[in-house]
Amino acid sequence: MSEMFNKIADALENSWLTQARPNQLPPDGDWSIWAIIAGRGFGKTRAAAEFVSAEIESGRARRVGLVGSTASDTRDVMVAGESGLLSIGPEWSRPQYEPSKRLLTYTNGAIAMTFSAEEPNRLRGPAHDLIWADEICAWSNLQETYDMMMMGLRLGKRPRLVISTTPRPLKILKDILSREGQDVAVSRGSTHENRDNLAPSFVNSIIKKYEGTRLGRQELDAELLEDTPGALWNRDLIERARISVDAVPEMTRVVVAIDPAISNNEDSDETGIVVAGLGVDGKGYILRDASGRYAPVEWARIAVALYHEHRADRIVAEVNQGGAMVETTVRAVDPNVSYRPVHASRGKITRAEPVSALFEQNRVHLVGAFPALEDQMSSFAPGVAGSPDRLDAMVWAITDLMIQPQMPNWGLYELARRGELF
Questions:
Q1: Does residue 224 form part of some domain?
Q2: Which of 249, 251, 262, 273 is deepest in the core (most CB within 10 A)?
């Protein structure tokens, strides 16, 4: 019995209420949505998980929905992560988790089911009295998932939604925040507030590298940044270009475009890898963004895998920096792929302008959401520093599919301009 008392005393001493910062605790008031808008590493996952757990333990929540960007994100972050529902709270109140059923069962009979934005239709049937939506700005089917989620939030006297996300200026999030003080309560915070609990390597490499930059203001300080003046794309244009995967026609051509980084370390630029297709309707479709920091053999393997997965017609790669090494690396993975090198003879703005014009003419669509790529698009303007590698790859892909075919002498022009025609 004394052992049980000791456990209870220890749990009370180390309870979330004694550890949390004020902006990690649920706000007062009669709100329906609590939006935790905070930077990376702030502790928003822990704050949301603790709120969900407390609502279940009190009996106020009996049927809970957990919605993440992907099935693995929901499982690995919201459920089994370091700050997930299986990790917090005392041992005796933790739920039983059945991954195959996407189900958590609590000792008081309450249940929580996991969902992902990749499959919004799974939210059509179940009804909930509480939903936790994590990182909604990264959801691939944001509008459809949000609509299905809210239609299912109909049980009990006071159904509630808690959102934990790093902000991006998306229409849904802006609409939610515009209701602050009405049915929406908002808690805001930055990465810096929790730096004492973050790994020194994160503080030294990530925070110091990005603080003060536009990306840092968004990802660390959680600022809701609007469009960059002079940017070739704005958020309204991007939203108009977005379609669901169900609306994609048959493709007549598909390319995988690579904008390779010239180094491979923690300070390296990303390698842009974008898959795009030309539909039977004559429009371009951005199908995949697989960009990231990779060693050369890694980005080559990813690009070749996407080439086969999407049955692409060719791989297009910028070779200004890597030269013949780029093709050699790709062919070391698969010597039989169709490959075409491209040279960046003009500035990034000049190359991107025709592609931006195609977006304005409603001739290029984004299939789902590509948060990192869209951030580069909406902040890409003359005089803005940075290397928009994802954007570069997208520009190369659309140029190959839609711009170069309209200019039959493009290749001769480029050779003559570089003095290589004769």
A1: no
A2: 273
Same domain as 267, residue 174: no
Tokens of residue 357, six digits: 């014009």
Q: Which residues pair with 35 in a beta bridge?
A: 163, 186
Residues 347 and 378 both lie in one domain: yes
Q: What is the pLDDT of residue 339?
A: 95
Range(s) of the domain holding residue 345 = 235-417
Task: Name the E strands within 280-380.
Answer: 284-289, 314-318, 339-342, 364-367
**How far apart (Å, rounded) are the C-alpha atoms in residues 102 and 80?**
12
- Weakest mean pLDDT among 83-92, 205-214, 265-274: 205-214
Exposure string of 201-220, with b = 16+ CB inside 10 Å and e = fewer, is eeeeebbeebeeebbbbbbb
How far apart are alpha carbons 343 and 225 in whole angstroms? 33
Q: Say how many domains are in the chain.
A: 2
* Judgement on whether residues 261 and 186 belong to the same structural domain of the protein: no
Are 173 and 314 in the same domain? Answer: no
Q: Whole-angstrom Cα distance, residue 170 to residue 185? A: 18
With a CB cutoff of 8 Å and minimum separation 6, the contacts of 181 are: none
How many CB atoms neighbour CB 331 within 10 A?
A: 15
pLDDT at site 417: 41
Antiparallel, parallel or unpaired: β 272-279 and 284-289: antiparallel
Can you list the positions of beta strands (E) in 107-150?
A: 111-116, 130-134
Q: What is the C-alpha separation between 186 and 401, in angstroms, rounded?
A: 44
Categorize the per-residue pLDDT at 4 as very low, low, confident or very high, splitting at 50, 70 and 90.
Answer: low
- Tell me the average pLDDT across 108-120: 95
